Amino acid sequence: MFSFFKRKKAPETPAPDTAPADTALLPEVAKTVAPPPAPAAAPAAPALAPGPSLAPAPLPEVELFIEETAERPTTEAEKKKSWMTRLKAGLSKTSSNLSLLFVGARIDEDLYEELESALLMSDAGMDATQHLLDSLRRKVKDEKLLDAAAVKAALKELMVEMLAPLQKPLELGRHEPLVMMISGVNGAGKTTTIGKLAKHMQRSEQSVLLAAGDTFRAAAREQLMVWGQRNNVTVISQASGDPAAVAFDAVQSGKARGVDVVMVDTAGRLPTQLHLMEELKKIKRVIGKGMDGAPHETLLVIDGNTGQNALAQVKAFDDALQLTGLVITKLDGTAKGGVLAAIARTRPIPVYFIGVGEKLDDLQPFDAEEFVEALLG
Question: What is the recorded membrane topology of this protein (predicted)?
């Protein structure tokens, strides 16, 4: 489970020598490089326009990254045990109402009514809740299940079956570079997630370049720069201006430098802000002008605390950008983890990662069986 990514190599596509004509009007982007300059003996790199002097105090969520170095589990068995412990603890607010239903329960109509209430309270949504209950009733009848433990096991099986379409590994190495566009509303943990993903990719022997395309939120660029410094990753940025230009320049730099992955951060958007959603569409189009077929992954970061509102975000961003994957964060602070069932029934976009804490290893690939086991115990 802890092989975070699935790799697949594709034939190398030569990069174009010049930017396309319809990007010629994009403003010139000043590149700010997070890691220290290369030694003098290294081959000369293209001249970079000087950026502002950056010495921000690390934001609290970035500071927590430092704690990751202490006593990390080493063997696969230890890693899995550690992750399951954190996952169960993280989902405890969601699972408390569900798992307790089956303690000494009788298999009657009262149990189904209580189960319905618990699923709706977890924000599973009416469609997913009704589907699970109908399927469970049939299974109990067909298999003549008579005790609570057997009914609970049957519910686990049905939930895994429902969530299985969301389980898909993020494939690396399909393109050189693999271009990823990351979107999400403000407060979802998008920039922090990018920093964690960059570190995961480095563990998978992938070189990474980041683009600070969130030019609207205060300190967003500086926050990404801190993550770049922590991970020794180059960050392409500018103090202000067109985020599409930053994205285009990052793709060109990624091809020139021969990096494996380019991740483009974008400004937070509410799906109701149609003029700002149009800006996201523009960024995606411009990335495509920088490299044919890019972005290869278009991800949405969702705050698990938002429950059914998260489902509305998935629909709106998918309609605008044709999402390829989701990252669901902050499941450790919510009783609304059932929203994954609602997503599976309504808009089954792969959930590449889920997060149950601030530390690096608290972001892990989504596994349907593990999730259900943590939820129902």
Answer: Peripheral membrane protein
pLDDT tens for each residue of 164-177: 999 999 999 999 99
> Structure pTM?
0.80
pLDDT tens for 127-150 read 999 999 999 999 999 999 989 999
User: Known binder of ligand: residue 268?
Assistant: yes
Known binding residue 329? Answer is yes
The annotation status of 91 as a binding-site residue, yes or no, is no
50 domain-assigned: no
Residue 49 belongs to a domain:
no
191-202 average pLDDT score:
91
| Residue 280 assigned as binding residue | no
| Paired tokens of 92 | 């405890």
SS (H, E, C) 334-358: CCCCCHHHHHHHHCCCCEEEEECCC
330 marked ligand binding residue: yes
Q: Cα separation of 161 and 298, whole Å?
A: 25
Is 281 annotated as belonging to a binding site?
Answer: no
133 marked among binding-site residues: no
Residue 186 marked as a ligand binder: yes
Q: Tell me whether residue 190 is annotated as binding.
A: yes
Q: How many domains are there within the chain?
A: 1
